[in-house]
Amino acid sequence: MYYYIYQSPLGEIALTANDNGLTSLAFQQGKSPISLSGLCLAEAKFTQVIQQLNEYFAGERKRFQLALDPKGTSFQKQVWQALTNIPCGETKSYGWIAKSINNAKAVRAVGTANGANPIALIVPCHRVIGSNGKLTGYAGGLALKAKLLMHEGAQFRV
């Protein structure tokens, strides 16, 4: 396993990967910083990720195209895949995600899976808000979620 600390305009982002792809991305100032002990610092493994993050923060990239290898249950992976279909600048509700995976009654489970997303930003869990348009929980904190959505030009209520 490899890691790199990316200096974003919104603070340090920890990246981890294995030989199959990116395994996690976390804002280190958030509620769920990644422990990097035992991992090997390897900037060269993250060249493509760094380039795409630079483009995203410069407003030049709307969708990431990276090899991902998140660890989770099949249900979680199904939810995370659905998250990648939310376009930059748009938001969706937990109910919308549940319906998009053909499991309309699984709204709470979708919320739990969304919260367990190990690859924040790239798997855009920050684009999921309440059905009333208000911000809901985010591992990086609601202020960071609001900043990300404002950066993308998304509409939401506080």
Automatic annotation (TrEMBL):
Residues 74-154 form the Methylated-DNA-[protein]-cysteine S-methyltransferase DNA binding domain. One of its GO terms (cellular component) is cytoplasm. It catalyses: a 6-O-methyl-2'-deoxyguanosine in DNA + L-cysteinyl-[protein] = S-methyl-L-cysteinyl-[protein] + a 2'-deoxyguanosine in DNA; a 4-O-methyl-thymidine in DNA + L-cysteinyl-[protein] = a thymidine in DNA + S-methyl-L-cysteinyl-[protein]. InterPro entries: MethylDNA_cys_MeTrfase_AS (IPR001497), MethylDNA_cys_MeTrfase_DNA-bd (IPR014048), MethylDNA_cys_MeTrfase_DNAb (IPR036217), MethylG_MeTrfase_N (IPR008332), MGMT (IPR023546), MGMT_N_sf (IPR036631), WH-like_DNA-bd_sf (IPR036388). PANTHER family: METHYLATED-DNA--PROTEIN-CYSTEINE METHYLTRANSFERASE (PTHR10815:SF5). Residues 1-70 form the Methylguanine DNA methyltransferase ribonuclease-like domain. It comes from Colwellia chukchiensis. This enzyme catalyzes only one turnover and therefore is not strictly catalytic. According to one definition, an enzyme is a biocatalyst that acts repeatedly and over many reaction cycles. GO terms for biological process: DNA alkylation repair; methylation. This is Methylated-DNA--protein-cysteine methyltransferase. It is an enzyme of class 2 (transferase). Involved in the cellular defense against the biological effects of O6-methylguanine (O6-MeG) and O4-methylthymine (O4-MeT) in DNA. Repairs the methylated nucleobase in DNA by stoichiometrically transferring the methyl group to a cysteine residue in the enzyme. This is a suicide reaction: the enzyme is irreversibly inactivated. The keyword Zinc-finger does not apply.
